[in-house]
Amino acid sequence: LIVVGYYIYDLQKNNSPWNVKLINGTVTINGMTNNSGNISQGESLNTDSKSRIIVDVPQMGKLQIDTNTTIVVEKAKDGDNIVLLKRGSFKIINSALMPEFTIRLSNSFVIDHGGVFSISADESDNIKIIIEFGFVEIGYKNQSYFIREGYVCEIKNNYPPGIPYRLNASDTLKNEVEKFNYENGGDDSVQKIISSAHKEDILTLLALIPNTSQLQRQILFQVVANHYPPPAGVTRMGIIKADSEMLYKWWEEIEWQI
């Protein structure tokens, strides 16, 4: 009876199909022009160079899907919606406090924790995520990376998520983040990022810590602590050892203050 009851409960959470609203052009679902206005679990959706659509996701919000975009609805279930982004871009606009929505990418995934953000993937599987409101979690090889509103994170193909940077950060900081992420900028880039960072860029400095040497971690710890003292339970030695729980706890303490 317990198994049957759970099965019925789980079945009731299915929310497929999702409603598709055409703004411009045409849309194809599973390779065929679709006039039904719906997409179901397991189906793919494609927009061309002239088409844009809105997809309503029950109990979550909506997706504003841009031109030249292909997605697959891998799971359509309240509390566990999953979309695969193959190429193109779309914006997620949440109307739920806890949307429980995941975007799967080529070598990582993004967990939506509420708010508004855009995500794009080019032909080489390079990803760019821009957070307008709220925050998201990026999962990569059993690790989590948290990105708050006003920040950008880039994920180049075959690389882990890059160090996030503020959308309005200086060009110098953005260029050095790029060098650090993908051009072996090393300690030189770390020092230039520190010198060009404003108080609003502190989460970029915090994200650098686990990716640098222990010497650089000591420097970064002090710079961050000068602006936002570590909360209870977060120690200097723990940060120098790049303790993931302490780093997240400090991230939480800073995130709401910026």
Q: What features would you describe in this structure?
A:
It is a single chain. A hairpin with a 3-residue loop joins strand 6 and strand 7 (61-65). With 258 residues, the protein is α+β, with helices and mostly antiparallel strands. The chain is built from seven helices and 15 strands. Helices cover 28% and strands 36% of the residues. The chain has helices at residues 2-12, 171-182, 186-196, 202-208, 214-227, 236-240, 244-255; strands spanning 18-24, 27-29, 32-33, 38-39, 44-47, 52-57, 61-65, 70-75, 81-94, 101-104, 109-121, 127-140, 143-148, 151-155, 165-166. It has a 15-stranded mixed β-sheet that branches. Residues 6-11 have low confidence and may be disordered. Helix 2 (171-182) packs antiparallel against helix 3 (186-196) and helix 4 (202-208) runs antiparallel to helix 5.
Q: Give the strand content.
A: 35-45%
Largest sheet: 15 strands, mixed
Number of helices: 7
List how many beta strands DSSP finds. 15
- Give, in order, the helices and strands: HEEEEEEEEEEEEEEEHHHHHH
**Which outline best applies?**
elongated
Mean pLDDT: 92
Unreliable spans: 6-11
- Computed over alpha carbons, the radius of gyration is 20 Å
Cα distance, first to last residue? Answer: 51 Å
- How much helicity do the residues have? 25-40%
Structural category is alpha+beta
Q: What descriptors fit this protein?
A:
258 residues, alpha+beta, 15-stranded mixed β-sheet, 7 helices, 15 strands
